[in-house]
Amino acid sequence: MKKFAKNLKFLMLIFWLVLFVPNICQSESLNYPSILLEASIRPEKNLVEGRAEIKIPPDQDISLNLSGLKIKRFIIDGKRLTPSEKFTNISSSDSPRHLKIKFSARFTSLPNIISERAVVLTGNWFPAVDGLAYYDLKVSLPKGFVAIAPGDEIKIKSGRKNTYHFIFRYPQERPPLIAGPYFVYQEQSKNLTLAVYLFEENNSLARAYLDKIKETINEYETLIGPYPYRRFAVVENVFQTGYAFPSFTLIGSRLLPLPFIRETSLPHEILHNWFGCGVYVNWPKGNWSEGLVTYLADHRLAEKKGEGALYRHRLLVNYQSYVTPEKDFPLQMFVGRKDRASQAIGYGKGALFFHMLRQKLGDKAFFAGLKRFYRGNLFKYASWEDIKEAFEKETNSQLKSFFNEWLERTGLPKLNLVKERIIPLKNGEYLVALRITQEKPYYQLTVPIEVVSQKEKKFIKANISGPQTRLDLKIKGKPVEAILDQDYDLARRLTEPEYPPVLARLFGKKGFIVAPNQMVLHRYKLLISFLEKRGYILSSNFVSPDEVAENIVYLETLPEKFRGLFPQTRGSFCLLTSENPENPSQIIAFARTTSILEIKKVLPKLEHLGRYQGICSNNGVVIDKIEPGFKKGIKVKLDFDIKGLALKDLNSIESIARAVSLKKVIFLGERHDRYEQHLAQLEIIKWLHEQGRPIAIGLEMFQRPFQQVLDDYIAGRISEEEFLKKSEYFKRWRFNWKLYKPIIDYARENKIPLVALNAPKEITDKVAREGLKALSPEEKARIPEINRENLAYREFLRFVFEQHENSGKIKNFETFYEAQLVWDETMAQSIVNYLEKHPDKQMVVLVGSGHVIYGYGIPSRIARRGLKDYTIILLGPEETLNPAMADYVLFPEPKEAPFEAKLGVLIEEKTNGLLIKKVFPGTPAEKAGLKEGDIIIKADKQDIKELADLKAVLAGKKPDDDVLVAVLRKGKVVNIKVGPFKMENKKTKKKGHAK
């Protein structure tokens, strides 16, 4: 039994090792060169001397970096050669190759320095191969120097000099060497050696750093997997650096005592031993490690403090401040930090990428995928593609489009949230209709939105992929506000209220420096030089914010009107920023100082203080940091919102036509009876045609069965009279033909195709009376599939219906609603059909505004059919303006409609003619003697059987014309001359038809 228990314990130990210990054997089996290096350091001469033996596996080319080195002997496979000065390529062979190199070098400046004060060799300090190799490193130094390099085990041989042997069993890139008069503090934690290498003046920091190392390694082992090495050390550097290497980090001596270095920077550097110094970066394919480590270290720390959203917001502020179009590049092209812009991309955008991936997959899958990536790539080069493959395998999902969008594109998505309508429902509920808009290029995003009412909060996530996405949400209590992405879970452009005027915006953009006089320039010359290096120009004249579109820095004196923008401050130097009220995309800054010395002391700190709206200092010590205020998320008021516009910004119709000229579909939403709106439509059509745009004109007022009539008229095969008769215009459309005539005439003159969009009136009338259920199978086959998903549109139509309920013939809202849907779906299908058959064409659609306002009716239905490249222009909308209504609105000056001859009677269609039910006083009918009860049977000798026949006769009449009307009166035919009509056309306000 005891033997069985021992065997069981042994098996469990083996199982634990296989499962949790990094796969070192696998790494060692990989075909890497091995390098034995023996070197001697002579600090008093800034000299390193040594020899390197390099064994190259069969069938492997290598490149040797010899830059900065003096090569004394170079032997390959027993033959002495002379290598090139910097790089030497060694070609492969069927059998292993053997190099012996003797070298020396003197180093006096970074990245390699050898001095009596310290040895810092982080560059090319010995003959190293490009890529990974196994290194066996032995280094001799004078007594008093303590050395460290990557190693799981360090053996020290004492003698006249101390010789350090660094044993590192894993492939690595060229190892650094650091040495100095260190005091070494170390302890064991489980199977790890934890160490701190400090100069004497910082000895007191040892305990705190050892504790933090232990805490951090334990945390990341739980999160990711076992620490890959057997040692970790914090090493003090005489230079102010923050470097991570396998098994140690190198931190500047002035930085080490700062609490934030230990609490924030150290975890970042330790984590690099998993990612960057454990799983290596495949540099030609982009540096993923900085973004990942920033997310798992710096962001994670903020998250634990409850400040994750604030941290992400700061990343977005930095990106927007420093990354200008000329400095932008795709995330996958990031290699290392060169400036603030590259840092904002590689570290900031990179961290946000991993946050969005975590949001997309969920915590469990995200961290499982991370562990898989770590296990599968330890001690190997890895790329973004390897990260994608690990997460795809772990989650059994496709992530190609997500990775491509975020890695290959520059910039960030630009979103907005717009209120469409708030519609009261029953039982204290409201329907909130919102729209998310997105500028090109479009991203596939999951957008978090919170809707707040007086009684509750509701949280939703919306999947978007195009220019706009609609949302309908029911909520109890009166809606108050909606907030998009208030926790900054998306990498996106910040809107104005979210983008505070911080110092980073001053440092990241160009501008002007304004001084009150030449006398102050000496005091500010260091600050002026600092800003000039960032693109600022010192102006000899006063610059006002309304004159330029750049930042302005005022030295010493502020213009009177801006003094209220800045707080009262204390300190020998202050630099403050504020939003420019006349150009909110830019900022105004104010600087004052008592001496040039004060600026000199604080200047090195300035760029590290970019998150603040201002700072003040005394004797180089920052005494005030002004935190910026901003609105969290993209907010839209739902209860009471007031908007306005600057009249100076009103655009001409030509500029609007130009702005929409490339859209596939251009909706021109009209009130059918407004002549000035039709003239405005004509102006847009003319502009597009004259610019060579290949347009067709889609018409709501003509129905699909009459398409051939429109084709014949445009081709000149039939006259206007025949066109109106064959298209049954007067039977099927009740509005004055002359309102549309200028547009139709222009199309005919220029051979612009006209497209009949609408469903047959017989079908829509039947649906309006009895509903879709009343249609026969043959009639149903003539209409498209009906979509009822848009609740906001339904409630909008209910409002329209209730406004006209008493005056309309249709008394049932459901049938009215279904008829509207038939109109919308049919016209949408007609548009899509035409453009699929004519892919080179664009279409200008003339339609009642109710069919397009808020994108509800036809636009949403062509989008559902895959046609999303459209724009909406509303003409003379009478509702309160709302950004969601349309893309543009036009307000043409009122224009009297063309003359339309009318008798002045109320009629009813009968089988034998038109029965006059009422004669209106003062009209041509009354003056001519027409009477109630008369039945009109002829007009100008043409038979009149329905109202459309009479309208066709009257359509050509002018104000001074008359018409000969034959009526049946008491069984006899009476001929009556009616006219002239000039007194009939009184200026009365008409109700429009915006279905």
Annotated CATH architecture of the largest domain: 3-Layer(aba) Sandwich
Head-to-tail CA distance between termini: 89 Å
Give the strand order of the largest sheet, numbering strands 1, 2, ... along the chain.
5-4-7-2-1-12-15-14
Helical percentage = 25-40%
List the keywords:
single chain, alpha+beta, Zincin-like, eight-stranded mixed beta sheet, 26 helices, 50 strands
Topology readout:
Elements: H1 2-20, H2 24-28, E1 34-42, E2 47-56, E3 62-65, E4 70-76, E5 79-80, E6 87-90, E7 97-106, E8 108-109, E9 112-114, E10 119-121, E11 128-129, E12 134-142, E13 146-148, E14 153-157, E15 161-167, E16 177-180, E17 183-189, E18 192-198, H3 206-223, E19 231-237, E20 242-245, E21 248-252, H4 259-271, E22 275-276, E23 279-281, H5 289-304, H6 308-322, H7 340-361, H8 363-377, E24 381-382, H9 384-395, H10 400-408, E25 415-424, E26 429-438, E27 445-453, E28 457-464, E29 468-476, E30 479-484, H11 503-508, E31 511-514, H12 525-532, E32 536-539, E33 551-555, E34 573-579, E35 587-593, H13 596-606, E36 614-618, E37 621-626, E38 634-637, H14 653-660, E39 665-670, H15 675-690, E40 695-703, H16 707-714, H17 720-726, H18 729-732, H19 737-749, E41 754-758, H20 761-770, H21 777-780, H22 791-803, H23 813-837, E42 842-848, H24 858-864, E43 870-875, E44 888-890, E45 905-910, E46 913-919, H25 924-928, E47 935-939, E48 942-943, H26 947-954, E49 963-969, E50 972-978
Parallel strand pairs: 1-12, 18-19, 19-21, 22-23, 23-24, 31-32, 31-33, 33-35, 39-42, 39-43, 40-41, 40-42, 43-44
Antiparallel strand pairs: 1-2, 2-7, 3-6, 3-11, 4-5, 4-7, 8-9, 9-10, 10-16, 12-15, 13-16, 14-15, 17-18, 20-21, 25-26, 26-29, 27-28, 27-30, 30-38, 34-35, 34-36, 36-37, 45-46, 46-47, 47-48, 47-49, 49-50
